[in-house]
Each structure stands twice: as structure tokens, then as C-alpha cells.
Known about the structure:
Helix content is 52%, strand content 18%. The protein is α+β, with helices and mostly antiparallel strands. α4 (170-194) packs antiparallel against α5 (203-231), α7 (245-266) crosses α8 (272-294) and α8 runs antiparallel to α11 (344-360).
Amino acid sequence: MNFRAGLSRHVVRFLKAGPYSYAIKETSPYNAVYEFENYIKLIAKGIHTLIPAGTVIVKGLPIEVKTRTGISYQTDDRAFIITLLESTALPDSYLAKLNFKDSNRKQILKAISELFAVIHFHNIYWGDASLANMMIRFVKEKDAHGRVRTALKAVLADAETVEFLPSISENLRKNELENFHESMEWMREDLILLDKDAALPDLESDHQYLKSSYNNFYGLYQLKADFFTETGLDPDFHLKGIVNPVTIKEIRKQIEEHKWYLSEKANNEINIIDAAIHWYESIYLPTLGEFEKIGIYKYFPFRTPAMLYLEIMTHKYYMSEKAGYDTGIKEAVYSYASDLGNDPNFLKFVKKIIRTVLKFVKK
């Protein structure tokens, strides 16, 4: 076994035992158990956080304390919380020193804003949000065809102050972001003390980008939840690939139109959930199946059928908004593909996509 120490407001030691590495943080018995349970709850909600391995409580001898009323005794117990060490994550002490390009900084800030948005969506208040209490993890993600790409995810790396609330107010959410910004200012001051000539980023610009990205993510989660409540379709399960709020609005519009069509056909009002299920089974899934058959990957190598369908529908939404009327699927597909080239074979392929979509979507 090999121990080494790390920088933290708590004493943290790192242990390598066999194929595994661990972080061992010293804290109080109550906090060790509380933080361990918080990690379990966070993981259950799908939030990127540390994986707890266990807690250890070491009983100490009572400490004699003299008071005005006599002698009392306090416990001298020590406790440790043990987590698996993140081998593919960058800690704050390393991140802060790197002079990232603006585009790379935004990728990191986007990952952080996504973490804030998802914990707030689940009515969780972090309470001690700072770069020192998170890591940036490199995550390997596979698409439906097994192709792997690397994504950045922010990891909640200290759950000692986490609170699970019945609901979280807008003020608490804003306060969390402001506290994070303040912690970044403190870190900036520390870096200046270490190196007054260091090239440091514009924190105000970072803060504005973080807030904007956070609002987009938080709004998207809210829209997804509302969509699920209204239609019975889970956007993350049934409509994989939704990353834009307007996509949900366009799909919702399609389902409403399909509901009207079914109601007219049945001469009876069809409820929105039944219409959504019918749309999913008779339009969405068959369209994806046809995309598979015609081989979309030749011209769209990094898109799954679901991603392509959703991107076309999102493009249609923006086109219709700009035009002031529903432009229709045919124009949307041509416009979507227009920037991808004028290869005659590709244009033939685009026509095939249009025929495929129109086969199921009448408008």
C-alpha cells in the first residue's frame, strides 16, 4: 500500500491498494456518515459525483474538560470517509493553473453549469459550491452504434454540505452561482500571489457565460419534465439526443397536430397521452427505422437516426419562426442539408430522406 497526502481544508490522504486507488478524508463521525449517505443519494439521481467506498470511525478516549459547574467529558472520536479516486479527472489545483483557450474554458464552464443545473433541478442545494469541491471528468460515451467520444463532466467532489430540499427557490439557485463566482475570485487572488505575471482569464466574462449556460440547461430540464408529464414520453428515453429546448417545442407541436388528426378521424376527442404514444409508434419510430435502412451514416457519420430527426425538426422550428408560417418538412430538410455540399449523390440522398420523412409525416 502507498499513502500520499493532498491539499484540502480537511486532511486527505490517497491510498493505492492493488488495482484501486482511494481518497481518505478525515472528518467528524457525523459528517462522515452524512456525506456517505449523500453520495449514495446523488448517484441514485444520476448526478456525477464521487463513488463512496465506506466510512471508518476510530473511537478515542474521553477528553476531560473543566467548566464552572464541574468536570465534563467530550468524545475524541475520529472518522474518515473513503471514496474511489478519480483517475480520469482534473482537480481544481491543476485546472486553475492551466491557461486554456477560450473555447476550452467554455467547455469546462459548460460542464460546471450542467452540474449546477441538474442538482438544482433535483431540488438539491450544494451549500459549498466552489472549484475546490469539484473535478472535471473525462467521460467516454457511446452512441447507438458503439462509436466512442470523450465528453467533459463536472463531478461534485464534496457532499458534506449537500441538502436535499422539498423544493429549491430561485434565490437559493442564484446564491449558489454567486458563491461559486466568489470562490473563483478568491482563487484568482491566490494565483496572483503565487505569480503576479500569470495570464489569468476574465472572470466576469466566465461568470456571464456560466449563468447563460446554466439557464439553458435548467430550462431544458424543466421543459423535459413538463413534456413527460403532459405526454407520457420521457425525452431522455424515448427521444434520445434532445439538447435544445426548441426541439421539445417542435415535437410537442407535432404531437398536438397528430392529436387533432386522430380526433378528427375518430370523430371524438383523443387525449394528448394517447396521441403522443400513437405518434411515437406510428411516426417517430418508423422514420428512424427507415433512416437506418437508407444508411444515413454515409453523409451523417456522427449522428444517430434520432439525432438526425430531432435536428431536422429543430431546424424546421427556426425556419418557421423566421418565415412566420409553417415551412413544412420538405423545405426544412433541403435547408438543413444545404450547407453540407452540392455533391449530386448527396442531393439524391437528401431527396431520399425527404421521401422517408414524408412517408410518415404528412405535413
